[in-house]
Design a protein that fits this description.
By secondary structure, the protein is mainly alpha-helical. The protein has 4 helices and no strands.
Length: about 90
Amino acid sequence: MGIDWRILAATFGMVFLSELGDKTWLAIITNSAATHSPVSVFSGAVLALCCSSLAAVVLGYGMGVVLPVKLLRIAVGISFLLFGLWFLLRRG
């Protein structure tokens, strides 16, 4: 299990671009401004992203062993659509 540098670069680019401007990024900006402790905020954000990424990688790898990748892609796509509809249609 060596490092595939193309996969690493593609994953970095995908995660980096998808995180820009999302609510987590905005929360980090707000927390850093409010606390005036950028090192603590950065450390907490890095630790949280590492933990959530580890959980996603372990879950994805495990599911990839059991299920066909095409089925996983379809399921993830449908879940994105359902979450989007839920956010659009929810009240409040």
